[in-house]
Write a structure and sequence with these properties.
The two termini are 25 Å apart. The protein is built from three helices and five strands, in the order βααββαββ. A hairpin with a 2-residue loop joins β4 and β5. By secondary structure, it is α+β, with helices and mostly antiparallel strands. A five-stranded antiparallel β-sheet has the order 1-2-3-5-4. Helix content is 29%, strand content 27%.
C-alpha cells in the first residue's frame, strides 16, 4: 500500500507544514486548508475526510514531535491523508477514556484502510478514503 509514495507526481499531492508551536487553533487551520483543496467532494465524503484528517493531525500534535506535515494525495478513486511527525513511537489504538482513545477507531471506521510507516527520522500515519469523484475532475 504505502509503496505508491515514490510514484507520485506534483499535481497529485497537496502538502501543508504544521506549526511547531501548534495550539488548539492548528486543527482548524488544517481543516480550512483541506476544504479549500477539496472543493468538489460530495458533502459526506468531505465530512469523513475532514474527520480523519482532524484525528490524524490531533494525534500528531498531541503525541508526535516537530517537524510535522500533512499531505493529501489524490490517486485514482481514492484519497490518501498522511501526517508526518519526527517521533518514532508508533500510533497504537488504546481503550477510550474521558481524555481520548477514540481517534484511531474513528479513522478505521471512516477509511477503507489506515496504517503507518515508522522510519529512523519519524513516522507517517496515513488513511485511505475511497472517492466517487474521478481524480481527473478535481479542481
Amino acid at each position: 500500500m504505502y509503496t505508491e509514495q515514490a510514484a507520485r507526481t506534483a499535481d497529485q499531492v497537496a502538502s501543508l507544514p504544521l506549526r511547531a508551536d501548534a495550539d488548539l487553533a492548528e486543527p482548524a487551520r488544517v481543516r480550512a486548508w483541506a476544504r479549500a483543496k477539496l472543493p468538489d467532494l460530495a458533502e459526506e465524503e468531505l465530512a469523513d475526510t475532514i474527520l480523519v484528517l482532524d484525528e490524524l493531525v490531533s494525534n500528531a500534535l498531541r503525541h508526535g514531535k516537530p517537524p510535522r506535515r500533512v499531505r493529501l494525495v489524490w490517486l485514482p478513486g481514492r484519497l490518501l491523508v498522511e501526517v508526518d511527525d519526527s517521533a518514532r513511537t508508533p500510533a497504537v489504538p488504546r481503550p477510550p477514556t474521558d481524555h481520548g482513545g477514540r481517534g484511531l477507531a474513528l479513522i478505521e471506521a471512516c477509511s477503507s484502510a489506515w496504517g503507518q510507516e515508522v522510519r529512523h527520522d519519524g513516522k507517517t500515519v496515513w488513511a485511505e478514503l475511497a472517492k466517487t469523484q474521478p481524480v481527473s475532475e478535481r479542481a
